[in-house]
Amino acid sequence: MKFETREAEKYTIVSLETGGVIEPSILKELKPPKVNAKKGIILTGRGPIWLYGFLVHFYHPTAWVATYDPRLGGAVVVESHVPGVEPGDVIPIKEVG
């Protein structure tokens, strides 16, 4: 399991790569990268729904959390703690790795 981060002005992109099939027990030792909690975070990469659920909870203290959807050309905000960004907003992004 690998993570990469990229910084943008208002958010951090956290890309994940599982390297194949992973077991739920990986969550017991998983250490996602630390990010600036004052910014939003965009999660991207192929992974099971339960992994995304874990990561959304892990990054709950950040300004907002979104997941990238290439069909929409952006990231869908799923939770927010700041005014002006709310669940259902789509953060436009040209390309996320």
Description:
With 97 residues, the protein is mostly beta strands. The protein has one helix and six strands. It has a six-stranded mixed β-sheet, covered by helices on one side. A hairpin with a 4-residue loop joins β4 (64-69) and β5 (74-80). The mean pLDDT is 95.
Spell out the blueprint of helices and strands:
Layout: E1 2-7, E2 11-17, E3 40-44, H1 49-58, E4 64-69, E5 74-80, E6 90-92
Parallel strand pairs: 2-3, 3-4
Antiparallel strand pairs: 1-2, 4-5, 5-6
Low-confidence stretches: none
| Order of the strands making up the biggest sheet | 1-2-3-4-5-6
Please report the distance between the alpha carbons of the first and last residues: 16 Å
What's the pLDDT, averaged over the residues? 95
Order of helices and strands: EEEHEEE
The tally of helices reads 1
How does the overall form come out from the CA principal axes?
globular
> What is the percent of helical residues?
10-25%
How many beta strands in the DSSP annotation?
6
Backbone CA Rg:
13 Å
Brief description of this entry?
The protein is mostly beta strands and 97 residues long.
Index terms:
six-stranded mixed beta sheet; mainly beta; globular; 97 residues
